Amino acid sequence: MCTVTTAIETRGLTKQWGDLKAVDDLDLTVNQSECYAFLGRNGSGKSTTARMLLDFIRPTGGTTCLLGGSGSDPEIRSRIGYLPGDLNLPRTMTGHDAFDYFGGLRRKSGGGTRNSLIDRFGLDPTRPVRELSTGNRRKVGLILAFMNSPELLILDEPTSGLDPVLQEEFRDLLAERKADGATIWLTSHVMAEVARVADRVGLINDGKLIKELTFKELRHQATTEITFGFAEPLGPESFDGVNSVTAVKQEGSDLVLSLNGGVGDVLKRAAELDAIRVETEQNDLDTIFIQLLSGNESS
Q1: Is a pLDDT exceeding 80 seen at residue 107?
Q2: DSSP letters for 88-157
Q3: SS3 for 226?
Q4: What's the pLDDT score for residue 221?
Q5: C-beta pairs of 158-164 under 8 Å, 24+ apart in sequence
Q6: Is residue 298 predicted with pLDDT exceeding 70?
Q7: Range of the domain at 11
Q8: How far apart are alpha carbons 32 and 22 in whole angstroms?
Q9: What strands, in cross-sheet order, belong to the sheet with 208-214?
Q10: Which of 255, 222, 230 is nearest to 240 (CA)?
Q11: For strand 61-66 and strand 6-17, is the pairing parallel, antiparallel, or unpaired?
Q12: Is residue 293 part of a domain?
């Protein structure tokens, strides 16, 4: 059973399809009111894990615990908002139909929240699913997940198919629910989603949890590039001995630095060298994941 401080707990969770282990001996703990981002490449086991948490597919081995009980328990499920990566609804069902039906399975009425979310995401709930674009079907799924103000949100690639404006609206909503005390478990490839709300990050590859770290640790472990421009060309040795600098390459009168850590000493040296321009490049989530994965494979 989960402890009173945990919302999700798995021990030895495994799913095998023939010779393929989609999830391999997963031990996972997510605390109450925590946002945990579960990150990995396509096919790494993220969606399979989500489905096992809610007992939509049965594990080959291991155990799961959600909110002190089982994801198969209707009472537990009524306290959870779930957005699958591939929401499939009957083609003749309208948004209102979906909200009425699935809302009736929850223990709390979500009428007021439902209407505010419809307005917030700009959805026409009278149209049947067959007439909805990919983005509008995603809106239906988001409203279904959030409309009863659930204690636990399990969100699989939540912004897939949303335009940039609605992605930002979603991030605002996620931050609000986190501030209200909801526990959030999400999969994502979008750094902005993770940066806004994630407390911890789990990296999964080939079904195995290869690393867990706080978001602050994630950013510190990721290499960043900074380009400094100078009036006259300087050699790469100009940054020898500076903390966090892992590589320097010269491009004309520019020096491009790869960093792994803080930038304070780097900026101090650049000022001493009379840099006239600075440009930064922030790695996206995929790049950071590849860096960490490469480090794991080589260790």
Answers
A1: no
A2: ---TT-BHHHHHHHHHTTSSS--HHHHHHHHHHHT--TTSBGGG--HHHHHHHHHHHHHTT--SEEEEES
A3: strand
A4: 62
A5: 158/83, 158/186, 158/188, 158/193, 159/188, 159/190, 159/193, 160/85, 161/133, 161/134, 161/135, 161/137, 162/135, 162/138, 163/135
A6: no
A7: 6-219
A8: 27
A9: 80-83, 152-156, 183-187, 35-39, 200-205, 208-214
A10: 255
A11: antiparallel
A12: no
53 and 66 inside one domain: yes
Distance spanning both ends of the chain, measured CA to CA = 34
Considering the domain architecture, whether residues 136 and 169 belong to the same structural domain is answered as yes
Do 95 and 127 touch, CB atoms closer than 8 A? yes
Name the β-bridge partners of 161.
none
Summarize pLDDT for 282-297 with one digit per residue, the tens.
666 666 767 676 666 5
pTM value? Answer: 0.81
In a domain, 1, yes or no: no
Residues 163 and 81 in one domain: yes
Helix, strand, coil percent values for the chain (each to nearest 5): 35, 30, 35
Q: What is the pLDDT of residue 286?
A: 64
| Beta carbons of 52 and 13 less than 8 angstroms apart | yes
For residue 89, is it within any domain? yes
- Residues 160 and 96 placed together within one structural domain of the fold: yes
Give the distance, in angstroms, between the CA of residue 31 and the centroid of all CA atoms in the same chain. Answer: 16
The residue type of 135 is G
Compute the distance between CA of residue 265 and CA of residue 287 in angstroms, rounded to an integer. Answer: 24
Phi, psi of 181 (to 5 degrees): 105, 5
CATH of the domain at 235: 3.30.70.260
Based on the fold, state whether residues 11 and 157 are members of the same structural domain: yes
Rounded Cα gap, residues 118 and 103, in angstroms: 14
Whether residue 170 is found in the same domain as residue 118: yes
Nearest Cα to Cα of residue 186 among 234, 152, 135: 152
Domain boundary among 188, 204, 219: 219
